[in-house]
Amino acid sequence: MKRMLSGIKPTGRVTLGNYIGAIKPFVSYQDEYEMIVFVANLHSMTVYQEPKDLRKNTKDLIALYLAAGLDPQKVTLFLQSDVLEHAQLGWYLGCMVSMGELSRMTQYKDKASKIGKNESIGAGIFNYPSLMNADILMYDPDYVPVGEDQKQHCELARDIAERFNNRYSETFKLPEPIVPKVGGRIMDLQDPTKKMSKSDETGKGCIYILDDINVSKKKIMSAVTDSDNKIIYDVKNKPGISNLLTIYSILSEKSIPELEKQYENSGYGTFKKDLAEVVGQELQKIHDRYQEIIQGDYIDTVLNEGAQTARRIARKKLAKVERKMGITIKK
Ligand code: AMP
Ligand code: TRP
After folding, report:
1. Which of 85, 94, 131, 229 is the most buried (most CB within 10 A)?
2. Between these two residues, 315 and 201, which has the higher pLDDT value?
3. Within 148-267, where are the H helices?
């Protein structure tokens, strides 16, 4: 079995974009690949987190992974901070990357271009790709499923792996990023030219998975479309409808052409009403399982077992790295 690895930061409330772009695909991969999935809580510290919110978001994210169908018998699911080796390897790899490379990362560049005169950017935002490189390279995955915005960080991981291998001999596998072809970028329901995001200020264009289901259905009903009243997939001219078709297609497992045919003679009202039902049903299933999972100590058990498995791999890898670099002096 090929190995696949990915992580999600526990910042903010989980959105439909996260679910469609990351959580749901992981569930579909678990039978085909050896999956390693973690909650990237060290990464969340690049921006200040209210401690009580961070605790809640972290627990919710794990519960949502499980509620969405990730099976801990098949998947190694853990909390990044439980495996100390990540930070250690992150330091070594951070010493092998140049400031030029880090400053070319678009996420950092975006932040840097937006700050005001008297503001400054935390060094964590600049450095975090090194930690992400460590998260990835530690486990020698074949594939790293990520959203479009994270592809560049995975490519940096490949470069750093090659650099390490050339300098110290073969140590790391070169991972390949995979970006889902459909659903890699769910758009905001009020402004379908921008990504649906946790950091949306009004929250009107963003569906939060754990929100009241009626609120989410209303957001679908009031999604921005166009005046053409034809249900056709055309991202350039009809970004709103195309986004809704993408959501519908993924949640119903019907293809987009199939849906276009089904709604050939319908208007936006009918289409949105049906989609609101589809979204509502999916959310209801998740809410029911979430309620069971969040009680008791199931999450603790899953995380303890996941961390043990991850630690076994990580310790071995870090020991190898430290031997090769000359950090270790014991024979
Ligand atoms: P973030 O919310 O940016 O921390 O992203 C966590 C994961 O969800 C990453 O794999 C993202 O690429 C994915 N993701 C976030 N927002 C969306 C979106 N609007 N559409 C698809 N995937 C998304
Ligand atoms: N940086 C990623 C994000 O912001 C999360 C992440 C951390 C990650 N480490 C990773 C994703 C390793 C894939 C592999 O979404």
Report:
1. 131
2. 315
3. 151-168, 213-221, 239-252, 256-262
Each residue's pLDDT tens digit, 41-65: 999 999 999 999 999 999 999 999 9
pLDDT given for residue 198 in this prediction: 79
Tell me the C-alpha distance between 292 and 14, whole Å.
18
How far apart, in Å, are the Cα atoms of 42 and each of 58, 87, 158, 171? 11, 8, 21, 24
Edge-to-edge strand ranges of the sheet holding 3-8: 75-79, 34-39, 3-8, 143-145, 176-178
Task: Please name the residues in contact with 92: beta carbons below 8 A apart, sequence gap of 6 or more.
Answer: 134, 321, 325
Whether 331 has a pLDDT exceeding 80, the answer reads no
One of 9, 24, 195, 238 is an active-site residue; which one? Answer: 195
What is this structure's pTM?
Answer: 0.91
| pLDDT of the residue at 111 | 87
> Ligand 2, residues 146, 148, 160, 178: which to mutate, most atoms within 8 A of Cβ?
146
Q: Is the pLDDT of residue 183 over 80?
A: no
Reading the block at residue 46, the tokens are 């690049």
State the sign of the Cα–Cα–Cα–Cα dihedral 81, 87, 88, 93.
positive
Whether residue 195 lies in the annotated active site: yes
Region 101-118 average pLDDT = 90
